[in-house]
Amino acid sequence: MIRIISILVGLFFSAALLWSFGNGAVAYVTEPPAATVESVFHKHPKEVEFESDGAFGKFDNQQLQRGFKVYKEVCAACHSLSHVAFRDLKAIGYNDDEVKAIAKGFQIPAYNKATGEVKTAEGIATDYFPPVAYGGQGTPPDLSLITKARHEGPAYVYSLLTGYQEQPAELLKKFPEAKIPSGLHYNPYFANLNIAMPQPLTSDDQVTYSDGTKATVDQMAHDVSAFLIWTAEPKLDKRKQTGWAVLGFLLFATALAYMAYRNIWAEKKGH
Amino acid sequence: MSFPWANEYKPGHPLMQWLDEKLPLPRFVYNAVGAGYPVPRNLNYAWNFGVLAGFCLALQIVTGVILAMHYAANQGVAFDSVEHIMRDVNWGWMMRYAHANGASAFFVVVYIHIFRGFFYGSYKAPREMIWLLGVVIFLLMMATAFMGYVLPWGQMSFWGAKVITGLFGAIPLVGEPIQQWLLGGFAPDNAALNRFFSLHFLLPFVIVGVVILHIWALHIPGSSNPTGVEVKTESDTVPFHPYYTAKDGFGLGVFLIGYCAMLFFFPNALGHPDNYIPANPMSTPAHIVPEWYFWPFYAILRAFTSNFFIIPAKLMGVLAMFSAILVWFFLPWLDRSPVRSGHFRPTFRKFFWVLFIDVVILGYCGGAPAAEPYVMISQIASIYYFAHFLIILPIVSAIERPDPLPFSITEAVLGKDEAATLAPAA
Asked: What is the pTM assigned to this prediction?
């Protein structure tokens, strides 16, 4: 009895699925899914390497400091960094005085409960990077986690910064209605190809590096991407370092466990 | 409850004797996972995964309780509190990555445990109750994992919660009120987040309870084994301790190496980047996908794209998705072959491997965007999934001619050797 019911239930689900499949197949043949402008022109992030890549990769503090400079002088005009506190910058090699000086350069809004006024005050080391008011087109995302919040995040940020170009003529030929809406900019690494952010890194030496590195656009994009890897995962070095210690211990312990296992089973033939 | 030759607990120390009289907890452990539990001597590595699943459950509870000390279940601060754990709590990043990857590891282990059961017929009499309780554990795990994924209150958390609770909206007539009742609102918000946190904290302890029943039920007939032949004599078994504690210790080491490699070197590989974007009800992600361990069932849900007579496609998908797991409850009565192990069932074995590949394909389609050709592939794969359990298994078990079984476990291990068969077990 149960088998008959079960076969009937099985046939019911199969029939419903076949019906869906048939309808889908007919639709697929009569109206094949049309290519969209994104499916043709969107590009995967460029191949790019960072010091922190791989199981042995570590942050290069000098690069992170250069990247911070790019963030502060270029990105910070529109993008906040809300999960990072000024004190955190000590981890990338700034000393206490430098951190205090950096914090001082930011105005932190503070609500005064007694008077009801909102005033700004100079930042101190324990403050977080302040919110950034932005009234233009688009919504600049907070950058603290951006390299973890996009597929292949670090390469994505780098590609986006170096990927601005003219809209290809070929694109308009194929998709005449896909002309860039006014105020947007063509960037094939952006999900829908048209990004509100104008090209932020436009010329070499836009930021003056103090360590003698030549500030090419490519270098600045690289450095700020590296900095944003750090803001998203400040414990990355510690994590990998711990990982190697843990794996070393586990390999040793597992080898011992294996020998114990073989030893205990030695007199039981067949194992 | 156990075999007559099981070792008996004999407390040596006076304190242990005293304890044994008042509360025989050491005796209980001795009989459950100690030298007092005789286990077939021929278990292969597929039998390591029950213990590993228990380990994962303990790991999730320990890391989870610690995370709950620092997490705040409020939609205004939940996302930030997770980042606080990642940045400012001592070793908080490790606890969170251990918990997030621990969920994946738990499902890896449990899926292997379930497929072990499929192949070796572990669900068959006299072990039906163990199997039924196992399916209950799996359902509880799914609910727990789903609610846990909502807690960081990222984009996938929010939209996942919306999609999954939306499934209840497919129930005719009362669907919408039920969905609103579950969420405590019209869409996921603070009420939903709070109750999900509460339940996410509660359910693991319910799982512990059902796991205890699962192991209790296991100890009545004893463990099954790769031959599927029941234990006949003492020489068929070895005491759980030290034989299987040693083997499980080694298995645990191998498991931990893989798990820690993920945790420390690829901690976000199995997560979705969108969950590092704070929840935003005004912005729908391009592709809403659940965590990988739900993908096969998600593919079945989405495979129903056309209304079937009077049944709307969405309701059909929801019915099918739940049925895909509920059908496991009936497995002991659908597969009537008296032979348990797939080793001795040539026809069944082929279908088993087709099912395995089928579930992998379903998983792949469930993670892919809801577009062709993935939808058509998942429709075909879903047909096989249901046909396997509901049509193929009952028929195969009726017509199949199994290979000859060994006389006993000892014979399967040592060959036909009278002297060896009569040798006393250690």
From this structure: 0.94
